[in-house]
Amino acid sequence: ALTQLIGGEPRVKLAAVVHNGRFAIESGTITGPGIRANMTGRVADSGAISARAEGALTRTLDLGGASLGAMDFTADITGNTSAPIVALRLADGEFTGGGVIISNLNGAANARLGEAIAGDFSLRGASGKQAFLASGRLQGGEGDFRVVNLVASLGDLRFNSPRLAFGDSGFSAAFDASGPLAGIAGLDRGTLTAKGNIAIGEELNADITGQLANLRSGAVRLDLITFDVDAAGNRATLKARAKGSISAPIDITLNATADRAGDAWSGQAMLDGSVDQLPISTSRAARWQYSPEGWNVDAQLAAFRGRLDARIGMSGDNATADLQLAGVSLRGISRVARITPVNGEVTGSASFSNVAGLATGDFTLAIANANPVGVTADPVSLNFTGNLRNGVFVASATGEGQGFKLAATSREEMIIGDGFDIRPNTTTPLAAQLDLTGRAEQLWALFGPENQSLRGELQANVRVAGTLSRPDLSGGFNVASAAYDHGETGFSLRDITARGEFDETNARITGLTATDGKGGRLTGEGSISWDNDVSGGVKISAVNLRALDRDDRMAIVSGDANVVLDTESIRITGDLTVSQARISIEQPASASIPTLTGIRRINFPDQDEIEAAASSPFQRPVQLDLKVTAPRRIVVFGRGLDTEWAANLRVTGPISDPSINGTATLVRGDLDLAGRRFDFDTGSIELNGPIRSARIDIAAERTADDITASVHVTGTPVEPKFTLESTPSLPQDEVLARVLFGRSAAELTGFEAAQLAAGLAQLAGGNAGFDPIGLVRSATGLDRVSFGAEGGIATVSAGKYIAEDVYVQVGAGGSGGVGAQVEWEPAKELSIISSAQGNGDTKIAVRWKKDY
User: Fold this and answer.
1) DSSP letter for each residue of 45-70
2) Which of these, 580, 542, 587, 582, lies nearest to 561 by C-alpha position?
3) Among 201-215, 277-291, 530-544, 792-806, whose mean pLDDT is lowest?
4) Residue 49's CB: how many other CB atoms inside 10 A?
């Protein structure tokens, strides 16, 4: 038993003495491939023991699906040789099993040995941040060994077993387990509930039920897995269901049977369900067999509107496989792979045989009528073939359609092991070539991220030499008449041209030029390397380039930047100058939709809560780190505001929601409040995070006949706060009535009262619920519209900026009849106003103001 435990023959050395005619062992050592121990003390010829052993297990022990790593131990041994009493201490061990690694394993056991074994034990350790504890009682005798009242925990996961028995007759156990799985076996979260009884001896008997709920691990999201195992008299049945998402939403039910004959098993299995709402099922019951000598599976699967036949087996060191694929929908595969949907069909076959280390294999794969969804003309066809002979794998690929043509070949030596152990030899010569002409749309449809598009002419020729571990590439590529669109930002490039050269493990990009279609230009150069992982980048220069072009935000920039592809993201760094920008503070429509409090999302069908890490390097998230300078012409507008700013900013974070740090200073601006303009005197915006959390501080003033009113705008761009004050102090509605109409709120007409209500609503919440004047302005395109009364006679006036610094207003009604006014601002602080009335009155005025 010791020889099996330590993995080899141990060497034992004992030291004994004879004193007064009595024999005693006083010390000893045991050394071997898996153990090292020293013992001191005494074993008298009477059988009395008083000893201590110290040592270590120095090799990993295989426990059948689990393993126990090396660990130190000490043991105090008392009693006598017929029934020794052992106090054992374990330290610094490691246990691995079921995807769980328990490290720093320590424990203690106290037991009386002999014809019967009895004692207690306890263990402790950790798996990551989860503590592991276990305790129970040991019992045994006459070929049986039992653990009674086992209680174990890993974090908050609990395992209880009133009885675990090992012996000559087999194994039996009763158990129950429940608790969270977060931090265990790589799981981010989940719960387990299971209970059952199992007995394995001459017959198999079992009754096990359980479920796993809300499992999360990276992109894997399994909402529920249920299982039910029943076995009696060496016949077992398994019923299981899995629902959730792996690379796509799944809902699959499995029913299987198993029959045991000695060490051999055989049975059948039926699968039914859906993957991404596409049906998948076994066309007939799959048959399988397993024994220590080998295994085989014969199955037929209907999936993605096609069929897969598979016969796979292994006996000893020999392996065979035969696969047939017929009429499988490429659209279904593209949906599962989470790439842009592509129509088409896939058909193919593969065979493999490895007998006595002589491996052969063949495969063919044909993709027919492939096209992006919505396109039917000139479909793409692709054909792949390969064969394995004499340890060499040769493959080729051809394709054409949609202006696309592909030709590729490769030759690689393989390392042939036993069974299915076959892999490329990374140190032997590699030979491959690729010639490609066509459109970039087809490649982007397969590998590009959604909400972005790339189209244009593409040519590439690549020759590969060297080895697989160190390939040596040569050749080049050209991109012409290409266009790129980024839907999230509105960023667009047109007339893209680029050239590149392959050099061993990288591609140099030269001659990159593009325009934005609106007068902006971009140039660049760089390199992409794939020595270990895909990395590299492009250095670009922009001149009047529209980096943002959306309805709510626009920016024209010039300067130098670097686009760097690293293992985590695509990083954009640089120093840019903004020559013009427009940013709206209006909330999107979704922001005004009312929400119900107390409602919590559980899950949404067919939607992942945890985004999968992008498989393509070019699908990695875009991160910004930009220094942005704007001397002026950053226009912030919306909710009556129309302002111009200068700014010095640092933009960092994801492109979809960047963090902006810095200060913007007001150049000029005004607030249109119910048809009246408040000119801003001072203003600043402090930014320290997303633009929606910027802090606004702007002040404006307007003088009426008998009061001076001031508006103070504070808060954030998405929740600005408008405060209206006056000298002398009056309520807000009274101040606004006098500013808008020149008289008290109690003297207003019904229409004027509606205007006043709209103005107060704008002050209170940033938007007017009903703004009649605003509706008229929107319908006519005028900048300002006003209705009122003078001397009992209705008045109306309308105005519009006919140039950036010239404002014209025409009015009718009141004592003056029809009149007109022209306001010209030849300089920032100077205005010249000329007016004429229908009654013959004319005047000209010069207005000057200065900020101190």
Assistant:
1) TT-BEEEEEEEEE-SPEE-SSEEE--
2) 542
3) 792-806
4) 20
- Asked whether the predicted pLDDT for residue 696 surpasses 90, the reply is no
Supply 258's token pair. Answer: 């198993």
Residue owning tokens 């790129």:
484
Print burial letters for 236-271: b (CB count within 10 Å at least 16), e (below 16): bebeebbbbbbbbbbbbebbbebebeeeebbbbbeb
Q: Which residues pair with 851 in a beta bridge?
A: none
Residues 6 or more apart whose Cβ sits within 8 Å of residue 604: none
Helix (H) or strand (E) holding 514, with range, is strand 506-515
Burial letters 554-579, b for 16+ CB under 10 A, else e: bbbbbbebebbbeeeebbbbbebebb
Q: How many angstroms separate the CA atoms of 269 and 41, rounded?
A: 61
- In Å, what is the CA distance from 287 to each residue of 258, 282, 283, 290? 10, 11, 12, 11
> How distant, in Å, are the alpha carbons of 344, 570, 664 from that of 658?
40, 14, 16
Task: For residue range 580-603, list pLDDT tens digits in order.
Answer: 888 876 654 444 444 444 444 444
Higher confidence at residue 166 or residue 812? 166
Q: Is the CB of residue 385 less than 8 Å from the CB of residue 364?
A: yes
pLDDT digits (tens, 9 = 90+) for 113-141: 766 778 888 989 988 888 999 999 888 76
Strand locations in 262-357 (E): 264-275, 278-282, 286-291, 294-303, 306-315, 318-329, 342-355
Rounded CA gap, 613 and 608, in Å? 12
Could you give the CA distance from residue 384 to residue 363 in angstroms, rounded to a whole number? 8
Q: Is residue 201 a contact partner of residue 170, using CB atoms and an 8 Å limit?
A: yes
> What SS3 state is found at 620?
coil
Answer whether 484's CB lies under 8 Å from 453's CB.
yes
| Alpha carbon distance 736, 688 (integer Å) | 34
Per cent of the chain over pLDDT 70 is: 79
Distance CA 394, CA 411 (A): 5
Query: In sequence order, what are the residues at sequence separation of 6 or more whose Cβ sits closer than 8 angstroms to the Cβ of residue 179?
Result: 153, 155, 156, 157, 158, 191, 192
Going by C-alpha positions, the residue among 764, 808, 751 that lies closest to residue 784 is 808
Q: Are strands 641-654 and 659-673 parallel, antiparallel or unpaired?
A: antiparallel
Using alpha carbons, select from 316, 342, 572 the residue that is nearest to residue 444. Answer: 342
With 0-12 / 13-18 / 19 or more C-beta atoms within 10 angstroms meaning exposed / middle / buried, residue 534 is middle
DSSP 3-state percent helix, strand, coil across the chain (nearest 5) = 10, 70, 25
Query: Any idea which residue has 């992982």 for tokens?
Result: 533
How far is C-alpha 799 from the chain's CA centre? 53
| Confidence class for position 515, pLDDT limits 50, 70, 90 | very high
E strands, 376-490, are 380-389, 392-401, 404-416, 422-424, 431-439, 452-466, 471-486
Assess whether pLDDT exceeds 90 at residue 266: yes
Q: Work out whether the CA dihedral 776, 778, 782, 784 comes out positive or negative.
A: positive
319 — phi, psi (to 5°)?
-140, 145
DSSP state of 691: G
Check if the beta carbon of residue 213 is closer than 8 Å to that of residue 190.
yes
The alpha carbon of 203 is separated from its chain's Cα centroid by a whole number of angstroms, namely 48
**Distance between CA atoms of residues 674 and 788, nearest Å:** 13
Give the C-alpha distances (Å, rounded to integers) separating 318 from 296, 313, 360, 389, 471: 12, 9, 12, 16, 32
Are 544 and 526 in contact by the 8 Å Cβ rule? The answer is no
How far apart CA 575 and CA 563 sit, in angstroms, is 12
The pLDDT tens digits of the residues spanning 434-457 come to 999 988 876 676 566 667 888 888
**DSSP character at residue 317:** T
**Strand, coil or helix: 611:** coil
